[in-house]
Design brief:
alpha+beta; five-stranded antiparallel beta sheet; 20 strands; globular
């Protein structure tokens, strides 16, 4: 079978690193150009052997073991310079990287999922555009259902109390060396920017990540792999690549490394863990709530299903494997790996489970070990307890809890803490988003869920055509006046914006949903049709339907200016800050005019760090390892994120409700 070069098998990262390291200096300078040329070459596959014909006399052959090229002997070239040749290194660089411990591309789930799944896989659930997978940290990604989410946000009387991290043991000599190696690779990527970070820079990250994992520095190692994956996606023109995602991933990597370098006894959360710990939870009676797709930037895809216990506590069940949007679209019909149940994830959201010997992580992700027993039970609708109680929580408390969770690393969030449960009335659509206002809640919730009239914008959690988010939201936007219950995740980067995951009619009736859907719609997997909506709300024309509330859901222009400088650095590197501002005022001056003095000071510090390049008596660069520039960029990025999140949270609520 012959395919494009995108059909190459995964390659163990150690094989790629060794191939690039073995190249002579003159060939390492040419590897990026070769990767670009080789991307158009055809790939022939037969019985696990992949052949890339470079020209009439040269071919690179990859031999897989379990679907992965695992050793240097599995990659050969017919040219005279092999194995230290440009052809072999370029083909390996084109292939997706495989991390030891990840499941094989077509592998079966391990018999004891609690012990066998790496944290990077177990923690890939739920956020949109987010998130950045890190061992010991989940990958939130883009489906807003991207990683096994969980957070330690505690809301009491609408006041969030942050959890205090316990200091751990001091790093060993080997761990400090691994952290410094990762820091050097990350700083080099930031200094060169996306445009200057090619195969050599990506290989340096993978090499440092491999050493970090060997020294049990799991979280930074996984973060480095995410950055490396995104650099490759950008180089290959992946349509799913977003500069904002790379910025967030690089911020996570440099931020964790900075804390590890500066803290004498860093907390265990900074180092991460190879395997997620699961504790015994006893017996649980669970009711299905909703299920959502996962598309993580780390290359994992699948599904996360939320369930609710008798007390209204949220838990999640994840099914994540290496894959793309097609894998995520099919995962909704996969069998839930929990006990003896034969339910699919979609069916579970309309049913229930009785679980004995239940195990769960600190983020309330349920385990699927051999000792767990689970049988199918009846479920309940969103208008019945315990599900109805989720909509009874006041909006202010929900928003505080969700934004506190969104401010934490994805792996630290407890299941459902970053979700909000809303009752809204559709006002119309502009084609890309649905405009709505909150209403007073349902009869089941006692009308307590929200104060009336808060203007919201509903946007797609993931725009992959394999998932139903966009089509479903477009149809709902045309039903002006329709009231519905929504399970959604706030978008911390845009005021008054949520990413809906599931919807249901307010009164439980009136919609003509198929009986198998159990009264609600999981927007990623179920497909709404106009016949499913009540006839009392006829659909408006396709474009610009309905009214648009007079709410400003655009981000603050001053914050956008600062965020643009953060992303501009990631794109162009250190050099972009060395150019003069031109005739007009500098961005720092504009920030000061807007009374954003802290942001202006940080931007000045970033520019100064970029321009300060010490030189020796002969004019050669000396004494500058880029650390000051990386620290200045990190401070600006962290401030921008915190300010953007605070503005978004404040605009959610009427004055006086904070």
């Amino acid at each position: 079978m012959t395919t494009a070069s995108g059909g190459l098998p995964p390659v163990a990262e150690a094989v790629l690193v060794a191939a690039v390291d073995a190249l002579p200096a003159r060939l390492r300078k040419k590897v990026d150009e070769a990767v670009t040329r080789f991307a158009a070459l055809p790939v022939t596959e037969a019985d696990g052997t992949f052949v890339v014909a470079v020209d009439d006399s040269t071919a690179v052959t990859l031999v897989t073991d379990g679907g992965v090229v695992r050793s240097a002997e599995g990659a050969t070239c017919s040219c005279l310079l092999a194995p230290n040749c440009l052809h072999r290194a370029a083909v390996l660089a084109l292939a997706p990287a495989h991390v030891e411990g990840d499941p094989a591309p077509a592998g079966e789930a391990a018999p004891d999922a609690d012990a066998a799944q790496p944290v990077a896989a177990q923690a890939v659930a739920g956020q949109a555009d987010a998130e950045q997978p890190v061992a010991g940290q989940t990958v939130s990604g883009r489906a807003d259902a991207e990683q096994a989410v969980a957070g330690q946000a505690v809301a009491a009387q609408a006041v969030v109390v942050p959890e205090v991290e316990e200091p751990g043991e001091a790093l060993t000599v080997q761990q400090r060396a691994a952290v410094e190696h990762l820091w050097r690779a990350a700083v080099d990527v930031l200094a060169a920017g996306l445009t200057g970070s090619g195969t050599v820079a990506r290989t340096a990250l993978l090499r440092a990540a491999h050493e970090g994992q060997a020294c049990k520095v799991y979280r930074p190692a996984a973060a480095a792999r995410v950055v490396a994956t995104m650099l490759q996606a950008a180089r290959t023109g992946d349509p799913d690549f977003r500069l904002g995602d790379l910025t967030a991933a690089l911020q996570e990597l440099i931020g964790v490394l900075q804390r590890l370098r500066s803290e004498g006894a860093p907390s265990e959360g900074l180092l991460g863990a190879a395997r997620r710990a699961y504790d015994l939870q006893g017996s649980l009676r669970l009711h299905g709530l909703c299920t959502t797709a996962v598309l993580a930037d780390s290359g994992y895809a699948g599904v996360v299903t939320y369930v609710v216990d008798r007390d209204g506590g949220l838990w999640m069940i994840a099914d994540l494997m290496p894959g793309d949007a097609k894998r995520a679209a099919k995962a909704g019909n996969a069998t839930v790996a929990l006990g003896e149940t034969a339910l699919s994830h979609r069916a579970l959201t309309r049913a229930g489970l009785v679980v004995s010997g239940a195990t769960a992580s600190a983020t309330r992700q349920l385990g699927a070990g051999r000792s767990v027993r689970a049988v199918t039970a009846t479920g309940c609708g969103w208008h019945e307890e315990p599900l109805a109680g989720l909509w009874a929580v006041p909006l202010a408390e929900q928003v505080h809890r969700a934004f506190a969770a969104l401010g934490q690393p994805v792996t630290d969030r407890r299941a459902g803490d970053d979700l909000v449960f809303l009752t809204v009335r559709v006002e119309g659509t502009d084609g890309d988003a649905v405009h709505a206002t909150t209403t007073g809640g349902t009869a089941a919730s006692g009308g307590a869920a929200a104060s009336d009239g808060t203007a919201l914008t509903l946007r797609v959690a993931d725009d992959s055509p394999a998932l139903g988010y966009r089509d479903n939201l477009r149809l709902l936007g045309r039903a002006a006046g329709l009231e519905l219950l929504v399970v959604a995740r706030p978008d911390p980067s845009r005021p008054g914006t949520v990413l809906p995951l599931a919807v249901a009619p307010v009164d439980g009736t009136g919609w003509n949903l198929p009986a198998g859907q159990g009264g609600h719609v999981d927007l990623a997997f179920d497909r709404l049709h106009s016949s499913h909506l009540p006839q009392s709300h006829p659909l408006l024309p396709e474009a610009g339907a309905g009214r648009t509330p007079a709410a400003n859901t655009n981000s603050d222009p001053v914050l956008r200016l600062l965020a643009a400088q953060v992303e501009r650095t990631v794109s162009g590197g250190r050099t972009v800050h060395t150019f003069a501002a031109g005739r007009g005022p500098s961005d720092a001056t504009r920030l000061r005019r807007a009374r954003f003095d802290a942001g202006a000071a940080l931007l000045d510090r970033l520019t100064e760090a970029a321009c300060t390049r010490p030189r020796d008596a002969f004019g050669r660069l000396s004494g500058d390892d880029g650390s000051a520039f990386a620290q200045a960029w990190l401070a600006t990025a962290v401030y921008t994120d915190a300010a953007t999140r605070a503005v978004a949270e404040a605009t959610w609520l009427p004055a006086g409700t904070g």
